[in-house]
Amino acid sequence: MATVGGQLAVRASADDVRSASEWLEQVCSEHDVPAEQILRLDLCLNEALGNIILHGGPSALKAPVHLELEIKVDGRHAQAELSVSDTGKAFNPLTAVAKNQALTLADATPGGLGLTMINGYSDRLDYDFRDGRNHLTFFVQWEASS
Amino acid sequence: MPINYNDSNAKFRLIWLSGRLDIAGTAEIEGKFAAFAATERIRVIVDLTGVNFLSSIGIRAIISNAKAQQQRGGKMVLFVGENATVAKTLELTGIATLIPTFKDMSEAEQAATQ
Q1: A104 contacts on B by Cβ (under 8 Å)
Q2: Which residue among A10, A79, B35, B78 is least crowded, i.e. fewest CB within 10 A of its CB?
Q3: Would an 8 Å CB–CB cutoff place B72 in contact with chain A?
Q4: Which of B77, B56, B54 has the alpha carbon at shortest distance from B65?
Q5: What are the pLDDT digits (tens) for A50-60?
Q6: What does the alpha-carbon distance between residue A120 and residue A32 come to, in Å, rounded to a whole number?
Q7: Neighbours of A103 (CB within 10 A)
Q8: Which CATH code of 3.30.750.24, 3.30.70.3400, 2.60.120.560, 3.30.470.20 fits the domain covering B3-113?
Q9: Which of B74, B76, B16 lies closest to B50, judged by CA?
Q10: A86 and A134 in contact (C-beta within 8 Å)?
Q11: 3-state secondary structure of B50
Q12: Shortest CA distance to A93 belongs to which of A29, A137, A142?
């Protein structure tokens, strides 16, 4: 099995979300992650950072958000796992209740779709709160070309 | 993040978005988007064929403008063409069931002007 990856620290601010996406794109492209899978990771990353910025509270600004990417290829099975670690208030997306979908536009309220996006675009999620930090990891899997 | 509109059809306004509708991209266009959507024509088609990244923040802007349009007595529909990425996100989040979404422009025009 071959494992490669990288790390990045960003601020919990809208300005740094684009930088995080550019880093993700660069590392993934260097290691031949297909564009479709990069997009899935990027969407999850944007939603995770967006949730920290919007809902993490003042403690989320105390320390950088740590990003860690690992890409593993084992024969035809390939997987990327991206961990997002922040000092915002504890939030476990695995136990959070997803927002009810509105039935009409009049009933729809903007917002609350980040978790739906992360669940929809990742193959698996892990969450842990330790050392005062949320650790959210999402996994994306695909079949590697031979 | 470009945003433009076209009033060449007298029955509706066509608003064209392109690029990344992430946090930064949405912040760039949301003021213009709201201003362009608040047209006297009250019928609006939003062309998303050039959008290559649609986050929940971008969806929030689309919902807000579609609701405002409805409250003005108007209607907003979405045109995605062959943009499978955006179509998937709209379906995944349930937006395609709230705001009429079309792959075919003639169907979008018909729905907007009904």
Answers
A1: 98
A2: B35
A3: no
A4: B77
A5: 999 999 999 99
A6: 23
A7: 11
A8: 3.30.750.24
A9: B16
A10: yes
A11: strand
A12: A137
| pLDDT tens digits, B30-68 | 999 999 999 877 899 999 999 999 999 999 999 999 999
Give the chain A residue nearest B68 (alpha carbons).
Answer: A106
Instruction: Give pLDDT tens digits for A77-126.
Output: 999 999 999 999 999 999 987 777 788 998 888 778 999 999 999 999 99
- Domains annotated for chain A, with CATH where assigned, are 2-143 (3.30.565.10)
Q: Which of B101-105's residues contact partners 24+ apart within 8 Å by CB, and which partners?
A: B101/B77, B102/B77, B102/B78, B103/B79, B105/B45, B105/B79, B105/B81
- A–B interface: beta-carbon pairs under 8 A: 70
Residue A146 pLDDT exceeds 70: no
Interface probe for A, chosen from B56, B64, B71, B75 (most Cβ of A below 10 Å), is B56
CA torsion through residues A9, A13, A19, A24, sign: positive
Residue of B99 and A62 predicted with greater confidence: B99
Cross-chain residue pair A111–B94, CB shorter than 8 Å: no
Residue type, A24: L
DSSP secondary structure code for residue A58 in this structure: G
DSSP string, B51-93: EEEE-HHHHHHHHHHHHHHHHTT-EEEEE-TT-HHHHHHHHHT
